[in-house]
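Many introductory courses stop at the sequence. We go one step further.
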Amino acid sequence: MPNLLPLDISRYPTYQVFLAVIVAMVAAGALFPFWIRLVRFRNIGQQVRADGPQGHLVKQGTPTMGGVLILLVITAVFFAMGRFDRAAILAVGVMLSCGILGFVDDYSKVLKARSLGLRPRAKILWQFLIAGAFGMLAVNWAGVGSKVVIPLTSRYLDLGILTTTLHLGGSAIVIPWLYLGLIFTMIISTSNTVNLTDGLDGLAAGTVMIVVLAYAAIAFRQNHLQLALYAGAVAGACLGFLWYNSFPADIFMGDTGSLGLGAAIAALAILTKSELLLPIIGGIYVAEGLSVILQVASFKLTGKRIFRMAPLHHHFEMKGWSETKVMVRFWIVTGILAGAGFAAFFINSFRR
């Protein structure tokens, strides 16, 4: 008879990543009904923009802060299945830090019963501090280099040419200013553009799931199993959340989820040294962010609007697309861009 001993998954890293996806998905799917009841009991509901699409007014009061459970599931699954790898711990840390910032923002909205929470300057300041701490730890603790790979070439862009070294207590602390500037830009812009994308049922969670699966594949290709496990846990938690966030949503992730997940994506791009692939893999967030920037700039300079409404997903809603159609088509575009970004990484991996 064949040997029916239990499978030792530690010998099969692919299984571990898939298992992280499945465990996080099942955990999120099983826990969200209880979380939705708790949030409803606490009377924590979404505050909808008065100047947004009129069809969204029916969402007023829908339970929010689903991001709290998403981030808790990701953290629990990673630490239950992964190891204490410095890079992966940093990824979890920056996600939770931005998630806490989002929680404060969400909670202030609930207290004030309005759609605006923290002041934009305060939010940016805290994101700046979080990104700075992450960048310094990434370079000096996790050993992340300041050279950035140029996609589809074998060349590097050295962002360590302007560096200050501090000697404190016998330890050398390196401050690569240009690379830190890139880290600031990536974490702040990605967390905020994912936040902008979280305007339709299932849109942010679905696109994040696709994007982090691409980064899971990149990390796995680099033999960085802990980052791949982490990305798998993020994807699984988003998938479990989607069951309750699909149209019409039973719960929203709120800023807790969108800021935390956006930071997670940026961290994965930085820690896998695929920084310049982020605008490709996360291209849908670039489009959402640019639509807001262009809309504001155009209105201030000319008094005219380029889009019917910004961010971009609202523009298509105002053109008559259903919320589900916008969501699915944005998912498709994200899948194409994520595939293109991974293909670019794959080509680069053969050229080094």
